[in-house]
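Input for the complex:
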Amino acid sequence: MPKLSTFNFRAALLWLAVCLAAAFWLVGRWTSVPINSSVLALLPVQSQDAAQAELETAFTRRLDRQVVWMLSPGTQPDPLLAAQWRARMAAVPGVLEVQGPMTPQLRQQWLQFFYTYRNSLLDAQTRARLQAGGNAQAQWVLAQLYSAFAGVGHQEIARDPLMLVRGTQMALLQGAGSLRLVDGWLSTRDAEGRFWYFLPAQLQASSFDVSQTQALVTAFQREETAFLADHPQARVLSRGSLFYSEHAAQQAGHDITVIGSVTILGVVLLILAAFRSLLPLLLCILSVGMGALWGTTLTVALFGEVHLMTLAMSLSVVGISVDYALYYLVERRSRVVEESPWCSMGRVRPALFMALGTSAVAYLLLTLAPFPGIRQLAVFAAAGLCAACLTVVFWHPILARPLRAAPVPCLRQLDAWLQLWRTRRLVRVGVPVLLAGLAVLALSRLPFSDDIAQLQEPPARIQAQDRHITELTGQSMDQKWFLIAGQSPQQALERLDAFVPQLAQAQAAGWLQSYRALPLHSLNRQAEDQQLLQSAATEVRQALAATGLEMPQADTRLTPLEPEVWLRSPASQGWRLLWLSLPNGASGVLVPVAGVRQEAALAALAQPAAGIHWVDRKAAFDQLFAHYRQVLSQLLLLALGGVCVVSIVRLGWRRGLRTSVPSLLSLALGLGALSLFGRSANLFSLLALVLVLGIGINYTIFFGNSRGTPRTSLFAVLLAMLTTLLTLGVLVFSSTRAISSFGIVLSAGIFAAFLLAPLALPDQASHPTNPSC
Amino acid sequence: MMTAVFQKQLARSKGRFRDGARMWAWFVGLGISLLCLGLAPVPSHAWTLSQVQQQLASRPVVRAQFEQSRWIGTMPKPLKSSGRLIMARDRGLWWQQEQPFGLTLVLTDTRMMQQVAGQAPEVMTADSSPQMFDVVRLLRAVLQADQAALQQNFRMDFKTVDSGWHLHLQPRTSPLDRLFDAIDLGGTAHLRTVVLKDHQGDRTEIHFSDPLPGADVLSNAETQHFQF
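Predicted:
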């Protein structure tokens, strides 16, 4: 015994040393560990193109920093009111810029720009006419001259005989949407005759974290209220990702404060009530803490980063790993008088290792998935569970020494429950059959959905304003676009030039209503256009001369237009968001599309190899969810099969199959419970099932442990279930739909696992064998 | 100094590019709508503006021929064109230039189309250029004898002359005043001439024929003109 304890003390010390080392290492690294929150990082590895991902993230960040206000002074324009609103909002800390009116100076610069670069900015229609030969352009110029509707003056002819500026302007007008300039301000009018100013704004780059988002939204609301108090006839609409994320953050904050405090209070009270001592609570926290430490350490060591989702899901590891400590402490307390702490450990150790082994294997199976997010989660969970278990095995016998003896509470009821399962065949067969029937019924009615929009119901007020703005401007928040990427700005523009005709064809075919392609060409295209102009100019002049019109010679020299020059000019106003050039030269152009009717056909236009990507943010998320759901369901089935095989090998056909029934039914019932609440199953439900499986296995193993006492096992399992329900089950009350679904599956599954766990009891009511200690 | 002059010119020509098309469309449309007068009984006494305007809504469809001359800058000869037009109160304006080459313009409440014979039509919609269609709506207001619309935008000088009546309009609101010096309308029982003068010294004169005989509804073939 002393020898053994020496060994045990050494092991405990060694574990302490290793844990301290891990803690030091992690603390040293922690400040430089990147916390990855990009959903794209969760995408399957093979489909990730680093450059595309980087551009997409940058674009997304930028778009998320946009806010749009629409301000209506009434039925008549009131530029002063718009200016007042602009000044008010621009003064809010965190707002970078609110777009102002087009001043006369800007107008002049704007026109000067189009005149200077008229030979470099050819629109598609003018190019088509020039390609058809000088005659088509001559006809068009003639039509403009003769039309009383066109209003061509002699100054225009003298300065721009080919009327290129006019062509560009008409092309821009045709795609301008319903917004127009009134007194220099972008504005529109609705069906009821109300006049609306369009005021886009940009937020500062740093305004992403939760507290700043909240401060901004609060400030906006305060300003709006004050403004409307001064101008009761005015109306204001707002739009921006900001408002959605603020709402989500508020909901999450509510969840954390309300549910979080309920959870902590509940678990503390539960453990205190069960043990009537503070020590077990501290020991539970210790083992869970070690689990979190090792999970994080190994994740950082292997992946160099931690994904936000991994951290969030680490909560689940807590739910499983606390079971180990609880099981030991319950067993230990009932045997304080008769044997040493190490001896009690000997009773539960095989069961703990068995439980750990099965859960860890189940989690490690997840690493087979080609999804980086799930891999991280699996590594985190496996490492965390091992560490929590080792902590219990090595330290708890030493630390639990002061634990006082006490009988298991509610002994009579526990015994009666066990007796029911042991003696009544009706219960042993009837309950599982009944539950199986219930599960089949529920599952047959359960819809599956990967629509992320269903996960969370955005607040009606924000959505209504969003829809109203879409109606007014024709600009929706669909977030469907093509991303044209290139290794250099010129490559991106060349690819855009090559791609736009395809989009025009798609539009003609009715696949989509409209698209917004950057009115900027690559230098190559500019040179080609100049060739066209040069060869057509003389022909145009001759054709016009034939009708008796003497036109001046057009200046067709090339004035190359670089993206930087365009970006600095007022001509790029309203377009700048669609162009992005990273410091390493990688550049991208966004081409938003609207009114998509043939999504599949449009998506098929993408050629990722040539830098043309189809991006549908919502569909991408939906797809991601569907992917993960499929892979997870396969892995779950695999894990379930593994569990069955292991218990059959261990316990033989009869008992092995019987022991697997709780796992199987807990999964089915957990999922089936969703249909009871009118929910559909999604990725989160499956993640909950992974937990149900992991936790449910613990229950059957604790029950099946031939060295333990069934009634202490039952108490430990009851305690473990209550802890899990208190930590994760309370998520049912979350105001976020996805999270409450998670809670439903988990609660129902865990409860079913607990209910059926006695099926794993050893065949005879044999007295527990004593471990050799 | 040079740049200042240059920029002034730019500002003007820009105004022309963006607003010119719509404003001209408006004035031509106004002229056409006054054609409706042609079928009203000829009063023997002196004309008043409200008399003229009261006739506007009287005929749903008016058909006529036009001759147009445009004097642009220092061109030795004016650009002369001619053709026919249909003004349908419910549909809009169909303007068919026949000489010296085929050119079709159609203006409805929500769409504007220009087509050079043998080329693809160019269509502008109310969604894409709403300012133009505000003008069309203003035209509707004129058709319904809404004097306020004219009074809001012009200084008006209406007088009876030997040959009938004359209406001199001087824009007083921006951007009209940036585009035009003056618009002159003249007629007797119906509208005879529209003269548009702009700041650059360019001038457009449109002469209308007597209204052609025809039904108060569009024929099937005529209806086709407005569908594009």
